[in-house]
Amino acid sequence: MNTSRRDFIKAAAIGMAAGPALAGCTGTVAKQDAGRTGNNPIATYKAVLQRSDQRIKSVETFTNGNVSFVRIRTNDGAEGWGQISTYDADISAMIMHRKIAQHAIGKDPADIDAIVDRCIEANYKYPWSFVCRALGGLDTAMWDLLGKREGKAVCELLGGQIRPIRAYGSSMSRSIKPKSEAERLVRLREEKGYRAFKIRIGSVTGHNKDQWPGRTEEIVPTVREAIGDETALLVDGNSCYTAPKAIEVGRLLADNNVCHFEEPCPYWELEWTAKVTKAISVPVAGGEQDNDLAQWRRMIEMRAVDIVQPDILYVGGLTRALRVAAMADRKGMPCVPHSANLAMVTLFSMHMLAAIPNAGDYVEFSIEKTPWAEGLYRPALEVNDGKAGIPEGPGWGVTINPKWLESAQHQISEA
Length: 415
Ligand SMILES: [Mg+2]
What we know:
Blueprint: H1 3-13, H2 26-29, H3 41-48, E1 56-64, E2 67-74, E3 79-83, H4 89-100, H5 112-122, H6 129-150, H7 154-157, E4 165-170, H8 178-192, E5 196-200, H9 215-227, E6 232-236, H10 243-255, E7 258-262, H11 270-279, E8 284-286, H12 293-301, E9 307-308, H13 318-330, H14 344-353, E10 363-366, E11 377-378, E12 383-384, E13 387-388, E14 399-400, H15 402-406, E15 409-414
Parallel strand pairs: 4-5, 4-10, 5-6, 6-7, 7-8, 8-9
Antiparallel strand pairs: 1-2, 1-15, 2-3, 4-13, 11-14, 12-13
The structure holds magnesium ion (MG).
Residues 236, 238, 262-263, 288 line the site of magnesium ion.
């Protein structure tokens, strides 16, 4: 395929070119209902948030299993709730109290950018993963508090609106057989109205090995045929392939009208991923694991991917995720945050998608049964007619389940 045709197809598929949608990827191509707004969320919140005498007095964590909620309280009795990234939440909670909380206590939460930056810079000997996971909990608690302080939902603080967000049903399973996967996606399409799904191909950091021989070659056409051409199909390689193998797989995906090839190569191999992105017509997505904003800048400048996928809680919170989205927007790249479970990260991503000008068309919505992620807060997220509603109300718009909190391990850092 010549370069200009490939680039045209790709631009159309990620919604960044005028003209008709690609058949089969219509959901991904069409812009979110509100369309491109031209809103600058960072400038918007910076204009709204005024400094005050409010000071953060305490940072608490409530930890149980995979989840740790964060509560911040201020000298005037206000509070905000956030959540540390899921999995090994006890380690992240410890990092919160040892390495993060002290940089927020005594500060005005309206100085959120400065607080977040200080947490990163003060930990320059211990960069990224767990520091960012803990910071994500502090940052999202500050956003909840700031929203409540202004009487606005977080998306409104960013210049967006409370509105339903289209969701893609995201499979987390590689053990599922192709026929069973196709059957459950068809059932979910009927029950919930999904018009886009993501399935898993290859194997996790798999060195080109499939989950079992032939699974990828079977599941892609099987699912495509079952869900029909009007339903968008996305796939995730989870760092499986070398560049040559990913390019070969990319041909299978193009033949089956796949419109999103996520993390084709080990994510740290930016040059491999960039090679794949340049070679194939299927848009390449990635970045969920990346939490260093300088690395993000490199990724975007070299166009290692076509679609950026910061995970709000891996990258260190909404404040930093918005910076990634803004960098991508300047290069005309859409942003589809990574949100692989129904704890709070999906809710945070919905608020972000409701406000950023380069929002991709869908929020990632897990279709797996995960008992530990159920009943954490009210109202629960739900997909109807293919869309998930953002709860009404200031901040994140949800209440954490008090029973769950009672069962959690409580730790506090305070002035
Ligand atoms: Mg992924």
